[in-house]
Structures are given as structure tokens and as C-alpha cells.
Write a structure and sequence with these properties.
The chain is globular and about 65 Å long. The chain is α/β, with parallel strands linked by helices and 302 residues long. Helix content is 47%, strand content 18%. Strands 1, 2, 3, 4, 5, 6, 7, 8 and 9 form a nine-stranded mixed β-sheet that branches. The chain starts with 5 loop residues before the first strand and ends with a helix.
Length: 302
């Protein structure tokens, strides 16, 4: 097999610097060695110190986002990457030894695909729990079936089982589709994958390539992700009509309606009744035959 260069951009910020040695070490220890590894940091001394400890590895480079918004800095780095394949990964995750190797092999075997990804397992932060698996993002039975054929846009859209850390994207696809959408934040990977899968089939490999660390600083734990999930889908609908069409209005609206409903529940819990009513109303309009959504809207008016 040829050994094309793989470019990996590792996102690192000061609060996550304590996880960086293990994460970066797991990348540089990959069985696939033809790597260009760029740590995109926030300019903090904490990140600089960790990267400096790996300075003898000539495959490693360190960049700071500077005054650029984070997603814009990531997009510009992707344009500069030299690899045939690009991965954008997280500094609090751990990457199993053959992760890059099996994804490159899958992409080389099926040149018509735009990206490949593998499975991810969760573990809770803390020394005693490092070896304890809390579950897979894709069950073992389903993973066996997914690996038998190409993965479609609708599968990715409905189930959200493709993640940034578990993926490699062809550089040629990034040039055609573009990188992260600047108007997204928490769900920037999903937004990107929907756009990629709208034009290119994907490959799943039945291998657990990533260990996802669960800890109090996870984005979904510290950000109001219900709002960001709605914004992500609204942006696809409003600014990427061809992607919306390829997903299918019925499938898309079912998911968006569910997200509006969950947003309404979130606003209810926060005591924001007016915003809850508006969210329930939007959910009701998208799912006209859902008694549950209708009742929640009516209840919010009482």
C-alpha cells in the first residue's frame, strides 16, 4: 500500500492542556507514521509547554490561532495542510494505535468516497476509570452492518454517529466543500459532515479508533447545546438548500421539529416561558400530526 501523508490538526486550549500529553502521544505513536501533526493552540503557555516536550519529533508543528476566530484559524490551517487526508481531532481524547492506518486503508480501497470514520468508546475522566468503557457510539451489532457498504447522508443525518476525532477527510473534498461553517460552534463537525455526505459517500470501519473522555469541561456540559443544535440545522436549511434537498424535507423537518421541542423544554426549565412557547410553536408547525407537540404549545399558553 502507498503511504500518503496524513495531516492531523489537534485542537488544544489551556483548560485542556492537562490532557494534551496523552492525546498528542497517542497520535505520534500511531502505527501509521506518515503524519503531519499540527497543534492549533490558543497561545497559552500551558499548551506551549506540552508541545515543547515533544519537540524532537520532526512531524510536529505548533500554531496559535492568534486574533482569528477559532474556526477560521482551523479552516486556514486545512488549506495549508500538505496531506492527502486531513483529520481534525481533540486534545482530550485518546487515539488507538491503528486508528489512522485503518482509515487510510479504507479510503485507498474506495477512492470514490469522501471520508472514512471508525467507532468511538466513552470513558470517564479519572485514573481509576481510565480502563472502563462506558459504551460505544455505535453498537457492536450495528457496527458490523455499517462496515459492509458505503454510508449515506441520511444515515449520518439521522443518527449523528460520525464524529470529528473518528474521521479522516480527503484534502480534495475539503477544497471542494470547504471547511467549518463560521456560523456554527458546538455542532461544527456535524454541519461539515452533512455537507460532505451530500456529495460524497462515506466509509465506516468497524474498529474502535478513539476513546472519548467524559469530563466537566466537555462542550455539551458547559454550553446550552439545545440552542446550537437548532442553529446548526437552521443554517443548513437557510444557506445550503441543495444539502437540505438531498437530505429530504420530511427527514430534515422531523429532526428539526424534535430539536425545537427539546429547546422548548430547555427554555421551560430556565423559566423563559415566552421563548418556550415560540419553540413549541415551531416544533408544532414542522410536525403537524404530533399531539405531544401541540399539547406542549397549548400548555405553554396557559
Amino acid at each position: 500500500m502507498k503511504t500518503p501523508l496524513v495531516s492531523i490538526i489537534l485542537f488544544a486550549h489551556a483548560p485542556f492542556a492537562k490532557f494534551l500529553p496523552i492525546s498528542l502521544g497517542s497520535i505520534l505513536s500511531q502505527s501509521y507514521t506518515s503524519l503531519q501533526v499540527i497543534v492549533l493552540g490558543d497561545g497559552s503557555e500551558e499548551v506551549k509547554e506540552v508541545v515543547h516536550a515533544f519537540r524532537e519529533d520532526g512531524r510536529l508543528d505548533h500554531r496559535a490561532q492568534g486574533s482569528l476566530p477559532f474556526l477560521q484559524a482551523a479552516n486556514e490551517l486545512m488549506e495549508e495542510c500538505e496531506g492527502a487526508y486531513i483529520g481534525t481531532w481533540n486534545s482530550d481524547d485518546i487515539y488507538n494505535r491503528d486508528h489512522v492506518k485503518i482509515l487510510v486503508e479504507a479510503l485507498e480501497r474506495d477512492p470514490g468516497t469522501g471520508a472514512a470514520f471508525d467507532n468511538m468508546e466513552y470513558f470517564r475522566d479519572g485514573e481509576r476509570d481510565q480502563g472502563l468503557t462506558l459504551g460505544l457510539i455505535i453498537s457492536e451489532d450495528r457496527a458490523k452492518k455499517l462496515g459492509l457498504s458505503r454510508v449515506t447522508l441520511k444515515q449520518i443525518f439521522v443518527d449523528n454517529f460520525m464524529t470529528g476525532p473518528s474521521s479522516l477527510i480527503r484534502k480534495s473534498v475539503v477544497k471542494q466543500i470547504g471547511g467549518y461553517e463560521k456560523n456554527t460552534f458546538l455542532n461544527c463537525d456535524l454541519h461539515w459532515f452533512y455537507r460532505i455526505a451530500a456529495y460524497f459517500p462515506l466509509r465506516f470501519v468497524n474498529y474502535v479508533g478513539v476513546r472519548k473522555r467524559l469530563h466537566p469541561l466537555n462542550n455539551t456540559a458547559v454550553n446550552p447545546h439545545y440552542e446550537y443544535g437548532v442553529k446548526e440545522l437552521e443554517d443548513i436549511r437557510d444557506h445550503y438548500p441543495d444539502v437540505y434537498r438531498r437530505i429530504g424535507g420530511r427527514t430534515f423537518n422531523k429532526k428539526l421539529g424534535r430539536k425545537y421541542f427539546r429547546l422548548g423544554l430547555y427554555y421551560d426549565r430556565c423559566g423563559e416561558k415566552t421563548r418556550a412557547t415560540e419553540a413549541y410553536k415551531r416544533a408544532m408547525f414542522l410536525r403537524k400530526f404530533s399531539f405531544h407537540y401541540h399539547w406542549s404549545y397549548v400548555r405553554s399558553l396557559m
